Amino acid sequence: MEITSLFFFLVPLFFPLHLSPTTSAASFAAPYSSHCHDYESSALWLFKESFTIDTSASSHPEASPKVESWHLQEGGGGDCCSWDGVECDNITGHVIGLDLRSSGLSGYIDSHNSLFQLIHLQYLNLADNDFLESPIPSGLGHLSKLTHLNLSFSGFSGQIPSNISDLIHLLSLDLSENDNLILKNSDFNTLVKNLVSLEVLHLDYVDISSEVPHIFANSPSLTSLSLVSCRLRGEFPTGILQLPTLEVLYLDDNENLRAATFFRKS
Fold first, then answer.
1. 132 near 156, Cβ under 8 Å?
2. How many Cα neighbours within 13 Å face the side chain of 48?
3. What domains lie within the chain, and their CATH numbers?
4. pTM as predicted
5. Spatial distance between the Cα atoms of 136 and 149, rounded to a whole number of angstroms
6. Which residues contact 73 (CB under 8 A, 6 or more apart)?
7. Band of the pLDDT at 79, cuts 50, 70, 90?
8. What is the rounded CA–CA span in Å between residue 206 and residue 180?
């Protein structure tokens, strides 16, 4: 049977599958006690200055231009740990979280952007902005401590950089709803093979145009997998359905993907 719209609920849902721009994959709400490092304040300021604020760049009704409240002290520097959307480690003062979802950011981003100087980042959410069909920068590979990365709904295009697979600490990866993104078959396999700690993987509307890797069955922590409209083909690996942690699986609109035998209607 060909699958034109297929999704499975493996246990009752207690959370939405698609991480909306108002839903973060992690929370960094602890109060900070350390002053941030000047070079990180400068990097964040330069990041801010590389974009314009455009209310049409974010679609969420509660979008807010967080970076407009960022200010350096006279002579440079500033306590970036107090800036909206920024979270610092309580002990070291390093920036570990950046939540700029739905911030009205508009502009091109590349690997020379000062964002990639923030090498202690663990959580990065740039969802629901407009990066004007920039390729996803390979500079993300410098952020080796990332555990949560959300670039959904942000106007990225082109080939997903292969070094995303080097971010081996990722627990959550959401690149969905970027209509012009492409993930090569070899990179898809490497991503699944390397990111063994993934709990959430959302790649909706990424052009994958390949079979679903059987190696997904070796993903011991996977709870949510969404591959809607990815041009998948072949038979869906049954081993994925046997993962003990898997709670949500969406495979809608992959018309050349075939269901496993025991999911076919008689």
1. no
2. 20
3. 2-15+28-263 (3.80.10.10)
4. 0.86
5. 12
6. none
7. confident
8. 7
